[in-house]
Write a structure and sequence with these properties.
With 407 residues, the chain is an alpha/beta fold. The chain has 2 domains: 173 residues, 3-Layer(aba) Sandwich (Rossmann fold); 212 residues, CoaB-like (Rossmann fold). Helix content is 33%, strand content 24%. It is built from 13 helices and 19 strands. The strands form 5 sheets. The chain has an 8-stranded mixed beta sheet with strand order 12-11-8-13-16-17-18-19, sandwiched between helices. The relative contact order is 0.09. It binds cytidine-5'-triphosphate. Cytidine-5'-triphosphate (CTP) binds next to helix 11 and strand 16. The site of cytidine-5'-triphosphate has 14 residues, from helix 11 and strand 16.
Length: 407
């Protein structure tokens, strides 16, 4: 299944390094060309010979020990995928901060291929705010994180931090390389909540963080799409994505006017304000003049306009934040706004929707509903993109036009 794929297997210095030997064997057995790269720390745990014997070529450890004068760029450019298992706190920090401290971190920074990071460390380290912040940064940039598991750790301690099991890591590698069902498809994603000015410093905002939209944009990009992300969020994004920063509903509308017609799939995950102040003050309103009376006007319904202008080859996805009658309200929105899919969430439920790292949704399409229980926003993104790919497959071939990425 992985035949012809070039995988760089990064191994850093933790006791779980011994498990990378099994992962290496699995990937080679599946037909991949595996280039192992060990850090100096990893060499304290396993010998080079072990990995070299099982991989497709000898272990690399240094920027300086081979005939290639630029091994890091060669590795990074040639790779179809880099998987780091185990990834220590140091390697995660270096990668998140762009520090090229050794061959492995150089290759990570020099690649545009998908990267899978599989952390393994003691619970105290895994839960440290700095490690969690670095993990968040990498996730936002589209790096796939295979979370560690609970279990016995080095020294006999029990807790979260044990390397994910090799079956799960191998599955993620297969999935990442195999699923390219949006190759060359142009996808536009909107994300975050709009901020509507009251005066020069104050805004009417909402609780949306943009996490779900950014996760969907990253998933589409990983699956081969050419992605434009129109966002109000300050979250980071994968470098493969074209980003358009906006703040208000009017700016989002302008961005859609420019970009929407040229895209095959449009995913409106942004929480666009429904009302905005009429004539916001250009200067800061002074409080000694008393509380201002805010006159609000409705914003245009961007999704409704997109639905009215939808071309036969386009797939249009709307979101619905509901507090009751979830599927019923979503289905009426599907029909009324000429959508192909509605991603509905019950924002009154625990751990769901705005600002959380988790979500639970009902996907409502013409052919039925599908409920995805509470899980990470990355997993929800996978399910949403699976559904979009299914809808595109069911379209007439002439409609589901594939855009030539070279044009
Ligand atoms: N949306 C939009 N333009 C607006 C408001 C919302 O395009 N001015 C889009 C959002 O991006 C999202 C969906 O509409 O995809 C969310 O709709 P929601 O706010 O849940 O619905 P309502 O605004 O309540 O729509 P309606 O009152 O028509 O049911």
């Amino acid at each position: 299944m992985l035949s012809g794929k070039r995988i760089v297997l990064g191994v850093s210095g933790g006791i779980a390094a011994y498990k990378s030997v099994e992962l290496c064997r699995r990937l080679v057995d599946a037909g991949a060309h595996v280039t192992p790269v060990m850090t100096a720390g990893a060499e304290h745990f396993i010998g080079r010979t072990t990995l070299s014997a099982l991989a497709s070529e000898p272990v690399r450890t240094s920027l300086w020990d081979g005939p290639d004068p630029i091994p890091h760029t060669t590795l990074g450019q040639q790779a179809d995928l880099i998987v780091v298992a185990p990834a220590t706190a140091r390697v995660i920090a270096a990668y998140a901060h762009g520090l090229s401290t050794d061959l492995l971190t150089n290759a990570l920074i020099a690649t545009r291929a998908p990267v899978i990071v599989c952390p393994a460390m003691h619970t105290e380290m895994w839960e440290h705010a700095a490690v969690q912040a670095n993990i968040r940064t990498l996730r936002e940039r589209g790096v796939i994180i295979v979370d560690p598991e609970e279990g016995r750790l080095a020294g006999g301690d029990i807790g979260k931090g044990r390397l994910a099991n090799i079956d799960s890591i191998a599955d993620v590698v297969h999935r990442t390389l195999a699923i390219r069902d949006l190759e060359g498809v142009k996808v536009l994603v909107t994300a975050g909540g709009t901020r509507e000015p009251i005066d020069a410093v104050r805004v009417i905002a909402n609780r949306s963080s943009g996490k779900q939209g950014h996760a969907i944009a990253a998933e589409c990009s990983r699956r081969g799409a050419m992605v434009t992300l129109v966002t109000t969020s300050h979250l980071d994004h994968p470098s493969s994505i074209e980003r358009v920063d906006v703040e208000t509903a009017a700016q989002m509308q302008q961005a859609l006017d420019v970009h929407a017609a040229a895209h095959d799939v449009i995913i409106m995950s942004a929480a666009v304000a429904d009302f905005r102040p009429v004539n916001p003050a250009g200067e800061k309103l002074k409080k000694d003049r008393g509380a201002p009376e805010l006159l609000l006007e409705p914003t245009p319904d961007l999704l409704l306009h997109l639905g009215a202008a939808k071309q036969p080859h386009q797939v249009l996805v709307g979101f619905a934040a509901e507090t009751s009658n979830l599927a019923e309200n979503a289905r009426s929105k599907l029909v009324r706004k000429n959508l192909d899919l509605v991603v509905a969430n019950d924002v009154s439920a625990e751990g769901v929707g705005f600002s959380h790292d988790t979500n639970a949704v009902t996907l409502v399409a013409a052919d039925g509903d599908r409920t995805i229980g509470l899980c990470s926003k990355a997993k929800i993104a996978e399910a949403v993109v699976d559904e979009i790919a299914k809808i595109r497959l069911a379209m007439r071939p002439a409609d589901a036009r594939r855009v030539d990425p070279t044009t």
